[in-house]
Amino acid sequence: MKILVTGGAGYIGSHTCVELLNKGYEIIVLDNLDNSCEKSLDVVKKLTGKDFKFYKVDLLDYEATNKVFEENKIDSVIHFAGLKAVGESVSIPIRYYHNNITGTLNLLDIMQKHDVYNIVFSSSATVYGTPKTVPITEDFPLSTTNPYGSTKLMIENILKDVYMSNNKWSITLLRYFNPIGANKSGEMGEDPKGIPNNLLPYISQVAVGKLEYLHVFGNDYDTKDGTGVRDYIHVVDLALGHIKSIEKKTDKPGVHIYNLGTGNGYSVLEMVAAFEKASGKEVPYKIEARRPGDIAECYANPEKAKNELDWVATRGIDEMCEDSWRWQSTHPNGFNS
Ligand code: NAD
Ligand code: UFG
Fold first, then answer.
1. pLDDT of the residue at 234
2. Separation of 73 CA from ligand 2 center, angstroms?
3. What pLDDT score was predicted for residue 337?
């Protein structure tokens, strides 16, 4: 089976490419390298010993994207490509809506034109807005609090309409919780541009000495220690969730929706402690005001994915931190180290 991976040079995409190649799938990667670099794909080739075509193409370029489908017989698409920084989406919403929505519309139109009806889409737990309770199941009400989240929810709705219009489509919406960790080799991991927005990359850069201390955004939430609680999931477990989706849902018409999380919630301070243990480094922090838009607690009920995809996350918090640290400590400047 030949799979087109959009956004395949990015953090989750590159880890998924490794697992797809290891399982014997043929892949083609499309990425405009807006938030990534081609070195990640060189590492994918090195780690798997397999080659594949890479198209430096922007999904906003209809003709160039169409050409990828003309030149290759594609069976299925895993659609990671998109802009993902919550804060940035508030500052430049038009760019976020244009890139994520128009890019996806181009892709869907081209897929249909070439009779390709299998797609796995990277959605996010952000579509649950401020959940009333935890753990979160897939049937919880949906809402968003920022333009990035709105693009995810809009794309989910577009995909549901596309299925209604043509029941040949097999659409899988994977709602990721908080991906962290890295490939075991230490040669591939998250490589954020500039100062990281997310907790784990920030903690790793404090531990490696690039940043002075962690800003803990609030310790007055109604949680175990007052700091925010999230469902951190190893990026390799997440990648394997995509493989299971391809195995179980390809050519199975419908809209299939799954949470990909562990079902466990860890606080910011628990993550600091876990990272200190894994790295042997101190992670100094200061308690500060809450970050606007943050919620207290967010973790998944992952039962549906277990029952229907035969998928469970098996890597625990210590392994996530150890793998992040192996990558960060050997690549303090990411792929440019
Ligand atoms: P990433 O930025 O590392 O990867 C996304 C890739 O898409 C990048 O390589 C980027 O260059 C590419 N891209 C963006 N716009 C494009 C376009 N118009 N044409 C072609 N390529 C384009 O991000 P990631 O963390 O790997 O996330 C992958 C997907 O998962 C994204 O859709 C993201 O919104 C979603 N997601 C991520 C998280 C997270 O915390 N990392 C959580 C939930 C959902
Ligand atoms: N946090 C800090 N200091 C930091 C960064 C984060 O204290 O420097 C705290 C936050 O307040 C929150 C927790 O750490 O309590 C996790 O924050 P992240 O920014 O790492 O992750 P979020 O849960 O806010 O959001 C992430 C992605 C979203 C995605 C969501 C669910 O950024 O795009 O996970 O998948 F939608």
1. 98
2. 39
3. 84
